[in-house]
Amino acid sequence: xxxxxxxxxxxxxxxxxxxxxxxxxxxxxxxxxxxxxxxxxxxxxxxxxxxxxxxxxxxxxxxxxxxxxxxxxxxxxxxxxxxxxxxxxxxxxxxxxxxxxxxx
Length: 104
Fold this sequence. Notes:
This protein is of the alpha+beta class.
């Protein structure tokens, strides 16, 4: 779990969704804005996973992969899509690396 200083609030997420840049990916949509201090939020709709237990498990697994690849110097919201359910950890990691390279 990320420290509270690196997590986004609901108001931050809403603001970022309106004003942020978007990065397409087959497994998730990324909305970001460059910043000195990295902050992250992961959003999973009920369309992706019906049960709250499943959404929390998916979020925890995604956060582990995100921490392994390292945070980018930006404020980022990851909106997970249904295709992530069938993706391997290696595929997700490669997409995270691709985003990291494109933002630098």
